[in-house]
Amino acid sequence: MRARIACVLVFVVVAAVSGRQAKPSSTASGTAAADVLAFEKTMEAAVVRGDVGFLDGICAPDFSFTHGDGWTTGGRPLRVENKAQWLASVSKAPYLSRDLDSVQVDMHGDIAITYGQYRARNKSAAPDRGAFTVWFERVYAFRDGRWQYVSHRTVHGPTYEAKVSAGR
User: Where are the chain's structural domains?
Assistant: First the structure.
């Protein structure tokens, strides 16, 4: 339910910011939607590598990353980072992995909204903080002939696993 509410909120904001009525969603089998999914996978791989140069080039100047879902129930997120802050976090290459799961794409002209989850493993963390999942909603904009990553908003999580086994 929270994810659905967040999706509607982002859609309304995107429509208002763009100054025009958003077009109906296309199916995830469309070419643009497939391009966005591939873009998202490439972005996640760059996060794991700590590839700040690549990420700096694909993030919009006004990029924002909202961590934690406290905002979905009237509370506060864990933190909100602008582009420079998020890139500084990523530069530490804290992840062993970040794998996308159950990602859907809604296309609205030159705006794409993705929602789904990623499963992540930290390189160094307390045993109860090593592996976690995050359900998210992200906004991408097609600008100057390419997709740009505009925002990430956690809609559920992070949810930590009790412990990470050595074989995972």
Answer: 2-15+24-160
Strands (E) in 68-130, as ranges, are: 79-82, 95-108, 111-122
> Residue type at 49?
R
Residues 93-128: tens digit of each pLDDT: 999 999 999 999 999 999 999 999 999 999 987 878
b/e code 85-115 from CB counts within 10 Å (16+ = b) = ebbebbeeebbeeeebeebebbbbbebbbbb
Residue 129 CA: distances (Å) to CA of 70, 125, 161, 167: 18, 6, 7, 17
For the segment(s) 2-15+24-160, the CATH number from 3.40.1620.10, 3.40.1110.10, 3.90.1150.10, 3.10.450.50 is 3.10.450.50
Q: Would you tell me how many other CB atoms lie within 10 Å of the CB of residue 66?
A: 20
Beta bridge partner(s), residue 105: 114
Q: How confident is the model at residue 26 (pLDDT cuts 50, 70, 90)?
A: very low
Asked if residue 19 has pLDDT above 50, the reply is no
Whether residue 7 is predicted with pLDDT greater than 60 in this model: the reply is no
